[in-house]
Amino acid sequence: MKVLIVGSGGREHAIAHSVAKSEKVDKIFCAPGNAGIGEIAECVAIGAMEFDKIVDFAKNNNIDLVIVGMDDPLVGGLVDELEKAGIRTFGPRKNAAILEGSKAFSKDLMKKYNIPTAAYENFDDPNKALEYLETAKFPIVLKADGLALGKGVLICNTLEEAKDGVKSIMMDKKFGTAGNQMVIEEFMTGREVSVLSFVDGKTIKIMSSAQDHKRAKDGDEGLNTGGMGTFSPSPFYTKEVDEFCKKYIYQATVDAMAAEGREFKGVIFFGLMLTEDGPKVLEYNARFGDPEAQVVLPRMKNDLIEVAEACIDGTLDQVDLQFEDNAAVCVVLASDGYPVSYEKGFVIKGLESFDDKDDYYVFHAGTKKANDGFVTNGGRVLGVTAKGKDLKDARRKAYEATEWIDFENKYMRHDIGKAIDEA
Ligand code: AMP
Ligand code: GLY
């Protein structure tokens, strides 16, 4: 069969890598893809938001299955457009992708269906928000309602900071229309865990847990990024936590969406915080996490195409989802200066070291082909992933592999997976 993947990051490279292992697949296309994806798929120069072109391409090339990796096209309704044209697509429709597309929607859903989350209020009037802050407790968390590249969350320690935050989100529109509404919520403390799941509208199957490192610098300092590294599984995701989430969060979310007439098919990403009062939902995403996908998918034993088709067909209950009894760590190699400003176009050396090496992977995020080689073309450049017999082994191997790669302004965190030592 022919598969088209929509997206261009490390996540889409990890998806393409899994899809390439499927015996069912003859040919993979990716729109727009990147240089690394181009090694295993044919990249087509169509942007992820060019819906008409994507639909035309899928029709003209007899694509059997489209996998939408990115949030923007999901929230914008690409799945609906493809389905209208009769093309099988893995991912939630627009009315379900709102679970990620609107934080106000997701908070209201959790409240209505008693799914544990931080206490909150929604606002569409900045003056009401400012008034509310006068009697609030600090620190407090401000969230732009819509998609903001993972940057629309502000943790404010003082009333002054929070007032400035409301102004920048709702009045100055720092995150554009994403700030037409906002959520103000209680600050929670605890460990964060990312749990990805497959959903077919009724049934939910949980993938192995992971932990992201969102801050740019060692010791969780610096600005929030798209993610600087991950490990899987999380040693803090215990059997007890799993049981609690199965009882109060996962199926409850799927059932709530169905009850609202918003049947969810695709991947739900649960951003959880393990608080003293038990696990609570920080956020939902309607797609694989990035770089979570880079440590979770290489450990999955199932054929990704079979699982995606079961989600579309509503037969996920018949799938026995299995993960390898090992661990993986991903260290992101970025361009120095990310996430603010950085240079591009530097030659990347050492990629050939990963050829045919078991359990070492290099997923491309921001790279471009130039002459015979590859050059840097983004803030996050590569995700270096290694699998090991346990987390410490995987971490050692991942950092070993980061040394094989060289490019000017190469930057990485040196403490990905430090939490493992505290487990
Ligand atoms: P989100 O995009 O909602 O996951 O938020 C980004 C990051 O902000 C999360 O990964 C947390 O580290 C932090 N965060 C979000 N909401 C809260 C909260 N209510 N309390 C504490 N930290 C939060
Ligand atoms: N790594 C977090 C995300 O994909 O949103």
Account of the 3D structure:
There is one protein chain. The radius of gyration is 21 Å and the shape is globular. It has 423 residues and is an alpha+beta fold. Strand 7 and strand 8 form a beta hairpin. Helix 7 packs antiparallel against helix 8 (159-171). Strands 12, 15, 18, 20, 23 and 24 form a 6-stranded antiparallel beta sheet that branches. The chain has a 5-stranded parallel beta sheet with strand order 3-2-1-4-5, sandwiched between helices. A 4-stranded antiparallel beta sheet has the order 6-9-7-8, sandwiched between helices. The protein contains 12 helices and 24 strands. Glycine (GLY) is lined by residues 150, 212, 227, 285, 289-290, 292.
Q: In terms of topology, how is this protein built?
A:
Elements lengths: L1 E6 L2 H11 L6 E6 L9 E2 L7 H10 L4 E4 L2 H6 L1 H7 L4 E2 L3 H8 L1 H10 L7 E4 L2 H8 L6 E5 L8 E4 L2 H13 L10 E5 L4 E10 L3 E3 L4 E2 L2 E3 L3 E4 L4 E4 L6 H21 L5 E11 L2 E8 L6 H5 L7 H10 L13 E9 L11 E2 L11 E5 L2 E4 L2 E4 L3 E9 L2 H12 L7 E2 L12
Parallel strand pairs: 1-2, 1-4, 2-3, 4-5
Antiparallel strand pairs: 6-9, 7-8, 7-9, 10-11, 10-16, 12-15, 13-14, 15-18, 16-17, 18-23, 18-24, 19-22, 20-23, 21-22
Helix pairs in contact: 7-8
